[in-house]
């Protein structure tokens, strides 16, 4: 029986907390084997799982848990500092961190809110929000530099999520400013400790507002579940945290990375704008090539788990993080230039950007719909849109979780008639 390889020094691979080179790091980890030993911030030992087949097996394995309270000895014994930058990801009690029947219970009300029927019903509103944001962008001069992440990629998913959740307008910008800190993996300890408090304060305001003015929205339904006794107060708040945080960030990065890829691959953009390749296929290739969530923490081995195809043994209590960025560019799944962006490839949909099996993201179809609508409308309105800097000059978010840029400067060019 074998274990995963480690670097030549014999030491675990130290994950770069700044996220400066997501795909360079992913390639290095893939070269070490299907899963390799790493050190997370504060030298927390873990495994980074990069092989897509192994990821699929582990995501549905009954002995792989997401519940630190039950299955991470270091957490249970109080050995994980409160200032650990990833602490919010393991402290929460929601579908992201639940195990077994608890996961099913906490995911059920969320899945109902994002059913295909509800996503279809939202399409006209997504379209209207998109065109409203494009109208606002058009007030800029055709030669002006515009931060498209701030003015479009960030705002579209936020406004859609606010409709779904029933978030009042006075909380829109505060949520936008606070949520990003939960994904920053390079914060100083005291800032990391304080970041969740800002978000929970806003969630508390949202809950109180919706108790006074309930509506046909997810927040009101979750509040009703709490009133019926099927959710605890923390589960209510943490379920909203999951929807506002992780769900929104995924779509922002999808739009951000999609614009970069399309603006720098003009011939492929032409295939999409003429209808030769569907925007749905474009969206899938963006998800494969640039997984919006590069690495997601954390899972825990309930007991010793031996993966027979690879011969890797995960000991009881081992921490696992899933590297979706590495999996999307696996050459076994994508033999034709896996690192390249290619909307014509036949394997565009073969990715794990939204998870797998029972751990598939409940908002996946909504994110896909936003991507299709946004890409089509943006490049129809601004067909000459180009980056205002060279692609290598774009700066990555200070995160190895969130795969996006801190700014997306573009020149829109003249709007189409």
TrEMBL record:
SUPFAM superfamilies: Cytochrome P450
Classification via Pfam families: p450
Keyword check for Iron: yes
PROSITE patterns according to UniProt: CYTOCHROME_P450
Keywords: Heme, Iron, Metal-binding, Monooxygenase, Oxidoreductase
Family the entry assigns: Belongs to the cytochrome P450 family.
Protein name (Swiss-Prot/TrEMBL): Cytochrome P450
Organism: Streptomyces hokutonensis
């Amino acid at each position: 029986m074998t274990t995963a390889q480690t670097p030549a020094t014999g030491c675990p691979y130290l994950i770069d907390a700044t996220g400066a080179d997501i795909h360079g790091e992913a390639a290095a980890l893939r070269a070490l084997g299907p899963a390799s030993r790493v050190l997370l911030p504060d030298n927390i030992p873990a495994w980074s799982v990069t092989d897509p087949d192994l990821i699929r097996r582990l995501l549905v394995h009954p002995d792989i848990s997401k519940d630190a309270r039950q299955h991470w000895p270091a957490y249970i014994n109080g050995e994980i500092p409160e200032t650990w930058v990833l602490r919010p990801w393991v402290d929460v009690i929601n579908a992201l961190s639940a195990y077994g029947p608890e996961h099913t219970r906490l995911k059920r009300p969320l899945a109902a809110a994002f059913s295909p029927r509800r996503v279809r019903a939202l399409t006209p509103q997504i379209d209207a929000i998109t065109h409203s944001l494009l109208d606002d962008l058009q007030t800029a001069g055709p030669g002006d530099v515009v931060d498209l992440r701030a003015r479009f990629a960030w705002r579209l998913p936020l406004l859609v999520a606010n409709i779904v959740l029933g978030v009042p307008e006075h909380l829109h910008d505060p949520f936008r400013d606070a949520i990003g800190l939960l994904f920053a993996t390079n914060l100083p300890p005291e800032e990391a400790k304080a970041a969740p408090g800002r978000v929970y304060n806003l969630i508390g305001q949202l809950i109180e507002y919706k108790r006074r003015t309930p509506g046909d929205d997810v927040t009101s339904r979750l509040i009703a579940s709490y009133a019926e006794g099927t959710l605890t107060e923390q589960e209510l708040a943490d379920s909203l945290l999951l929807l506002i945080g992780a769900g929104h960030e995924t779509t922002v990065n999808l739009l951000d990375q999609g614009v970069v890829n399309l603006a720098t691959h003009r011939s492929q953009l032409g295939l999409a704008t003429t209808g030769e390749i569907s925007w749905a296929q474009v969206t899938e290739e963006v998800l494969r090539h640039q997984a919006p969530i590069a690495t997601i923490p954390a899972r825990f081995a309930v007991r010793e788990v031996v993966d027979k195809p690879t011969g890797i043994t995960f000991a009881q209590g081992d921490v696992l993080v899933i590297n979706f960025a590495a999996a999307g560019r696996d050459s076994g799944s994508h033999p034709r230039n896996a690192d390249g962006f290619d909307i014509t490839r036949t394997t565009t949909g073969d990715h794990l950007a939204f998870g797998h099996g029972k751990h598939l993201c409940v908002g996946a179809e909504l994110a896909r719909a936003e991507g299709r609508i946004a890409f089509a409308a943006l490049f129809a309105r601004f067909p000459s849109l180009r980056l205002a800097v060279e692609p290598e000059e774009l700066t990555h978010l200070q995160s190895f979780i969130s795969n996006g840029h801190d700014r997306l400067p573009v020149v829109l060019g003249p709007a189409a008639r």
